[in-house]
What does this fold into?
Amino acid sequence: MSTAIINISSLVTNDPSLGEGPLGLVQDAAVVIDGDRVAWIGESSKAPATDNAVDAGGRAVIPGFVDSHSHLVFAGDRTAEFNARMSGRSYSAGGIRTTVAATRAATDEELEANLTRYLSEALRQGTTTFETKSGYGLTTHDEARALRIAAAHTDEVTYLGAHIVAPEFADDPDGYVSLVTGEMLDACAPHARWVDVFCEKGAFDGDQARAILEAGKRHGLVPRVHANQLGHGPGVQLAVEVGAASADHCTHLTDADVDALAQGTTVATLLPGAEFSTRAQWPDARRLLDVGVTVALSTDCNPGSSFTSSMPFCVALAVRDMGMTPDEAVWSATAGGAAALRRTDIGRLTPGARADLALLDAPSHVHLAYRPGVPLVSAVWRRGVREL
Ligand code: NIG
Ligand code: FE
It folds into this structure.
């Protein structure tokens, strides 16, 4: 069945061959969807005949957001910790232990219900693809179960057994690294596409992180790294060295880190929800963009450091506080996220791409930053199916 969305005031395709600038903007546009794919893009007046038509009424359409970094398999929340931070306490990786305890105690059904709830929240805000991680189990059983639950909802599943050292191994961190690279990896690799490590003071150092990422690679997983969130460290350069798809956070960067990203193929994924919710220094997107680094934006949705599922919120923060233009931020939240997941079928609206798109209650994508906090997503198609 084919559907035409007509009378789109401004369409972001992210394909410069289809329209103006890096966003490939087409004015007065139409998109034709056939099955789960985009079949045609062009001027509304030239749209081919279809089974159905939806009149966008002069509003904008963008590719569905690609949220390439989230931690959605968890139980409980950390309201008290957030409150304490907003009263002056600082964020530390240790809070993760609170969520680990709650997650281990939860049933599969509770974890699944929680995940589904945050996914539908994200969908209402225009997210059509999301990556999610384990990392709140930290036993072989609990990590594998988190990945199984995640894999029922997305292909982009990440093994993060190396989130922090499990409490049982507090006196034997190397023993925990052996578990994460041994029995736990054997149990988890079949359910995941990616391997991640929190490379940071209070979590894993550079040598431990390298061992974990290399072990993951030997099991067919592709690395991504939590890097340079809380301070300077080896994470970013390690990510480039091991050929990671993405270095995530990138808040504290030296010139050498920026050079490494500029010379490598690793995407820098910036997570402004984390800086917002921990009252931390903003990552400097401008510094990365100016030397040609590919930048993605993502929510990092998790109960500790960034409890938002909203990509529009991240776009607005990135524009206001990280030196991005609205065009750059929208690109990074769509095509950038796709690049961080090494996907070419999403994050763009071009014939043959997956029909994942959001209709905005606004005349252009710029309103995502111009009208922060306003629920502008009025319809979403995912794999060609209208979900909202
Ligand atoms: O990406 N940095 C490590 N992991 C999460 C925080 C998880 C938590 O605090 O529960 C993050 O910010
Ligand atoms: Fe994270």
The mean pLDDT is 98. The first helix runs from residue 79 to 86. The first strand starts at residue 2 and ends at 11. The pocket of fe (iii) ion (ligand 2) is lined by residues 69, 71, 226, 300, 302 (CB under 6 Å).
